[in-house]
């Protein structure tokens, strides 16, 4: 494909035609903040944080959905861009709890990073805020809708696996929120707790329940491991604190990498010093089960015992 | 008796829905028309009906729910035959609209934006009906009832079947 | 339906199975393929049955059956009239015809007696006997039902002399109110489908597009994109399947021109879409119409069925080899679906959330196929251009905005209704000419143009020639063409709040600036109106408005700050009065009003005290009363009740 040369912040950048301004800037090492952009499922264009100034274009276009053109001039940090980004962060904070001190995501939160980067100390608006109960209805994922910034990454990643689509956007306007069918808690939905959504959530709206209270993000070292339970070869991360593995989290899901609960639990059993008790839903209730059952190995384990002659 | 009658109604509704499904089979973008037709049949969109639409169209149930909650036309709860709107304007407030609301709510056994089990009434509130001179006021369907007392408000409802 | 599919004689080979390609023209100018006086007479009779000649002994009564007149009782009028005519034995001499909207709904139900075009307003069932006995039998016009100009007090005898109509240039609306919209023959008798015949048999698709380009027609849905250019993009786009979509999701409160055209002249929209389909190479069309317009949907269904029956929709239209079908999609109650990408997503069966552009619908539209979207009024303009030529059309209007535009004139103006005028006319001519000036002799303050995304223009902008560019630079937009006239008793902060309240509720919630920003702007405006405004509020509002306008994903978000920005631009002092002096100069914002009783006017009748819900008024019988400001809830009851004008607000 033909190449296109454009100027970003005074720097000449050459990229293949059809590239987005965002990717072009990033390829040249120029930073543009994003919240809703997911390289695996691009083109959503909702958070508007990645807006840039392009002389000749009406308004400030979102760089994630604007394609480059020959000779295009892009300003990623002009006065108007900075004002807009600050205001958008300000608006998000106006509808977001300010409880960073106790938030599991503290230290690994995009909203926090950008607020720091653009110097938005606190919101300038004091009006209505979201007020949803905490969804703590299952043993794996904690959902705090009040922290949700509606970037939709969870919705899109859930829809990326055929047959899942457990969540979608519901309601409208200021009342928009991510919902399950009939807006039931996650524990009552068809969710299979693969936690792709947790892996992509940029804020603290979706977190791992088994990791809750076990440490701050900066105390954890991460180590990638590949799951060998099936041929998909999904990547997970060991979360290590003081030399001990305290939990398993999913790495960003890629195409053809479904991630699944069984795989995560298997790794939990393999690596974590004190693995959680596996829980499965039976008749609508989560109940503790044996590891063999959780991993779907009951028949095998029984047969192994039989063949090897152990009681 | 009434149970049997309702069951028959339910059978008729299911048949009607099935006919609609047939009519739209193979039509692109049928979700919204199906929701419209289903609401026409049921008066609102029960969860099971949305689930059946999802199955019929082979789309996720969460998507059907997302679409149904996006558009103002769709109701997810049954609405009563009579819609009661108790005014919450300032004048009504001062003259005891809260007590009027409580009295109606108590009589019907439902809260705000709820519908009685027999589908006779839906209880709603409204910011102001612009009939402050008659405060406290409530509207039932298109009739405005003013100068209410908690007792009279409850009485007024009797005339609406 | 009067059949259009009959042969005129044995020589005619026209039939429903194989329609003659020239039959439309033949009905209007025929017979074309042979000489026959009998046939000529038949054709003449067909036309005269619909257009009564001025000297006709027959009479025809047109009764408006648009949404406005229907809700004021015009259906009952039709029944009563038919009944009364039968009673008087006139049923064969007087035809009763329903029509679409005249755009003068406030005066409805409307009735026109043809061929003289006597124009009756606010006709009630009780008036029918007098109309039949007095006018139809006795030849005496019923004076009291004639239109009286509120500005001059003069009566108008005929439709054409009513000042409201006389000053308009009704081209797109020409058929509305004058033909039966449920009768395709009426449309054909008024040169209907002539443009389609011309396009199909005398022009190539490229020539059609060229003609539309020459006309200078721009999209009437709001943004004003050149229609011919849009069509050429769709024609050039690669794809075996293309769509034509008509945006009939008219959602601006107060705007009803699209509804009027759909109800009054549905075939014009079908014909425009057909021509477009031919030009861009599409074989399927959708009309996305609000579910709140049941009558428009009904008329469209009737029109589509009739057009199909007459070989004007379907396969091999008029033996030309061109196929085109039109389907109706009813909206489900979401204003944002008027935005083109949201509309497409909604047709596909999704939440009506806009998509980023590019790709534009011309490249990737409905189900990923190249799609041409125009609104109702745009399509209704197309056939005029093809029929009369692009140059004819381009002769009207300004340099960059051609043709006519329909405005919905409402508010504090004497004549309210649909107004079709040439582009380039001034606001003053519309409001004071067609509209007959401000109601009750009050002073003009502002006109809000372009619906909830539009702006408010003050008196000094009244002589601005209206076109797309001039309105945008003045801080408003053409939008769909809503015009709300405001007088000195309108509070501009309250107006901004009103529109924001609307757009906030209709935000789809996808992008951050619109979802969160409209909410905060509305909260600030509400606070100012309630007397809780803070000094920094204006600055915050300006910043929010600027950011939402420049960063929102779709047109709804990008334009929703316009009411704030334009009122801040022209009426900043009103904001300051609310915030600094806690005063509403127009005396609208309840929380900022102080009610007092003028002791000199008060007779002490006590009716105010009885009306007061808060018990804030006291006084001895027959002595001046007083209002206890601390208890007053500012409901205004006392003022309404006082017969002596003693209660004053400041």
TrEMBL record, chain A:
Residues covered by the 4Fe-4S His(Cys)3-ligated-type domain: 80-119
GO cellular component: membrane
Boundaries of every 4Fe-4S ferredoxin-type domain copy: 139-169, 182-211
Keyword field: 2Fe-2S, 4Fe-4S, Iron, Iron-sulfur, Metal-binding, Oxidoreductase, Repeat
GO molecular function annotations of the record: 2 iron, 2 sulfur cluster binding; 4 iron, 4 sulfur cluster binding; metal ion binding; oxidoreductase activity
Any Pfam family hit: Fer2_4
Residue span, 2Fe-2S ferredoxin-type domain: 2-80
Segments traversing the membrane: none
Protein name: Molybdopterin oxidoreductase Fe4S4 domain-containing protein
The organism of origin for this protein: Desulfofundulus thermosubterraneus DSM 16057
From TrEMBL, chain B:
Free-text comment on the cofactor: Binds 1 [2Fe-2S] cluster.
GO molecular function: 2 iron, 2 sulfur cluster binding; metal ion binding; oxidoreductase activity
Positions that bind [2Fe-2S] cluster: 87, 92, 128, 132
CDD domains on file: TRX_Fd_NuoE
Pfam families the UniProt entry points to: 2Fe-2S_thioredx
Presence of keyword Iron: yes
InterPro entries: NADP_DH_HndA-like, NuoE-like, NuoE_dom, NuoE_N, Thioredoxin-like_sf
Keywords, in A-Z order: 2Fe-2S, Iron, Iron-sulfur, Metal-binding
Cofactor section: [2Fe-2S] cluster
Protein family per UniProt: Belongs to the complex I 24 kDa subunit family.
UniProt name for this protein: NADH-quinone oxidoreductase subunit E
Organismal lineage: Bacteria, Bacillati, Bacillota, Clostridia, Eubacteriales
TrEMBL record, chain C:
Keywords: 4Fe-4S, Iron, Iron-sulfur, Metal-binding
Alphabetized InterPro entries for the sequence: 4Fe4S_Fe-S-bd (IPR017896), 4Fe4S_Fe_S_CS (IPR017900), NADH-UbQ_OxRdtase_51kDa_CS (IPR001949), Nuo51_FMN-bd (IPR011538), Nuo51_FMN-bd_sf (IPR037225), Nuop51_4Fe4S-bd (IPR019575), Nuop51_4Fe4S-bd_sf (IPR037207), Soluble_ligand-bd (IPR019554)
Domain named 4Fe-4S ferredoxin-type: residues: 593-622, 623-650
A GO term, aspect molecular function: FMN binding
Keyword Iron: yes
SMART domains: NADH_4Fe-4S
Segments traversing the membrane: none
Similarity comment text for this entry: Belongs to the complex I 51 kDa subunit family.
NCBIfam families, A to Z: NuoF_pre_CCxxC, PRK13596.1
Protein's name in the database: NADH-quinone oxidoreductase subunit F
